Amino acid sequence: MAQTKYIFITGGVVSSLGKGIAAASIGALLEARGLKVSLNKLDPYINVDPGTMSPFQHGEVFVTDDGTETDLDLGHYERFVRFQATKKNNFTAGKVYEEVIQNERRGDYLGGTVQVIPHITDEIKRRIKLGAKDADVAIIEIGGTVGDIESQPFIEAIRQMMLELPTSSTALAHLTLVPYIQVSEELKTKPTQHSVKELRSMGLQPDCLICRLEKELPRDEKKKIALFCSVDPNSVISMHDAETVYSIPLLLHTQGVDKILLKKLNLSNVKSPRLNDWKRVVDAKLNPIKKVSIAIVGKYVDLKDSYKSLNEALDHAGIKNLAKVEINMIDAAKITRGNVSKILESCQAVLIPGGFGSRGIEGMITACKYAREKKLPYFGICLGMQIAIIEYSRNVLNLKNANSTEFNKKTKFPVIGLVTEWTDASGKIEQRTENSNLGGTMRLGGQKCLIKKHSLSHKLYKKLTITERHRHRYEVNPEFKANLISGGMDIVGTSLDGNLAEMIEIKKHPWFIGCQFHPEFTSNPRDGHPLFNDFIAKAIKIKR
User: Fold this and answer.
1) Number of domains the chain is built from
2) Which of 119, 174, 316, 518 is catalytic?
3) Tens of pLDDT, residues 475-515
4) Could you tell me if 395 and 429 lie in one domain?
5) Of 259, 281, 303, which closes a domain?
6) Which of 11, 317, 417, 490 would you call most buried, defined as having the most Cβ atoms within 10 angstroms of its Cβ?
């Protein structure tokens, strides 16, 4: 295709309706028709990126292969569409304003008055086009809710784009809530009407309305919404609650969402979608023949989105194994030596995920010891691998009170420490100190890892060099590598220069793997991930 087409997705009434899932599902449908798809998320908050935001406020921080900390919706995008997001696919109001202010300080505006229009909106449009480069169709999700003051520059920017580009180059889908009042047993369309009214007051008319609700939207209600919102009744789509998010592409396709948008974009001659993979995924998800119980011992267990990619990766592995994965979120701070057996007695495997800070660390160490001694499958990711190192050092190597310098700077046995220098994927040497800016202390993004031949990890990956994504500040202290190896822990994965420990296994344990990277970021429902797939396969065999 000569020129990229754009689908803009906005949301109204309330936040967290599922714009990311809707955008990803539309992307999946267009990809299934042979189109090259790009997905972009525009976030209206002033933070430059979500990297320093609490998971309790914003959910997980997703990391792209190029080392960018992004909104969790980019995880949805990569799970639904076979494309690799970059720093160009997510930007915030903070990034936009930062760029414009830097331009102004440099004198790029020739002494003129810098304003929201045109300077901020022009920068938004520039970034949208940059993220859409080379795609047949770029799907642009606007974060927040229509009517919010923070979103106005973004809404104005897409209004301008829809005026500047040919009519057949843009389409607008608006996601809105249709609440159900239980007492009166009524669906209420008024919030949707007001949401569209707000959108129209800003100069935008939706081509498609996607209605979020609990149950399927009746035909009469569709007609009512269509009449008051000036859209075709066939373009009012019911995105009601489903048993799995992976059925949403099929749900939207059944109602013709892809046809509606393609018609608006003058792309009606593309091939029919191939959706067999999605049908297989949904069937496996909804019809498991086995069941397995996994304990996630973490810090942010009160908010499911804090471990969004992790939960999905376990779900994907369940799909591959035709098993229902029951995830037990356990607050590490509540685990003690006295209660660990009772808390974990019904679990068939233990997983300790990434995290920062000292809260719950001793509980994680106790849970890891329990899994190691009881021969339960153990999967340590990022912090979870470091926990395994600390536990093994204390209880097997007899390094009393061994710890990470993140938790105890004065520990006699600093088996985990802040790494100050490493080589990134491009071969560039990166350096940091304890006093670096928060973002600057991170080892981020895709890094190559050398895997030891004949190890379990080698058997699972089926290759000797892999690339996985990192998000951490601390590493295994190289001074203790020899102690660990001689004591029965195998370092089976290292950085290309051999300096950094990337993966560990315990030789005399049926399934004990720790990895410094985050494999959950590269899992998807159609393929799963080799580590998660085998972790679940082994857990299924454990009888409790």
Assistant:
1) 2
2) 518
3) 999 999 999 999 999 999 999 989 899 999 998 999 999 99
4) yes
5) 281
6) 11
